[in-house]
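Proteins fold. Shown next:

***
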Amino acid sequence: MSSFGRRATATKIELIKIRRSMQVAKMVHKILDDKREVLLKKIDEMIEEANKAREDIWTPLGEIYTSVYNAYMSLGTMTLESISDSTPGIMEVDVNIRRIVDVKIPTLQVKTKEGGQQLSYGFVETNASVDKASKLIKNMLQGICKAAEYENAIFSLAKELERTQKLLNALEYVIIPQYQDAVYFIKATLEEREREEFVRLKKVKVVLDRKKVAEAEAYAKK
């Protein structure tokens, strides 16, 4: 009988070692099973939060599209593109790390500079539609980052869940059964040895008893 690439030695010491290893494997399985349940719960929570974050984006996004459309209609394409070119195309975001079930999840926070609500263009060449679209976009950036954060968290937690499930499967279907087979093999071998030893001792006892009887009879004849 082999155990993890080596032949199990049928001794009581080996039996104790394998039983201890199997006990540890079962403890690890319990820990991983608990972790899996927590991961599933957290993923469900993140999916709910992601759905809410996406819903919070749709309404202002619709208003933005309407405002931009109105701006195109009233100002024309060239004017609006000129305003767009004068607007910075980069936003600064603080990235921090939090842990969920020992999984690193980035958190995003849009940096707001002093006077961050000031517009990057003049009022003369624009109208209310441009102003509304610009303000809505700035106000929506944090919501977009939050939605992205939840989406990334779901992906990271799902990857950890997959890894945890693979470890559980290895323990449940490979490692623990091998330990169980090794224990069964060693116990069966030791029991067979005990039976053989018992039979051997019994035969020796019979031989010794016959010898004693023969010696007693010989002594009596003298």
About this structure: The first strand starts at residue 2 and ends at 3. The chain is about 75% helix and 10% strand. Strands lie at 2-3, 6-7, 93-100, 103-110.
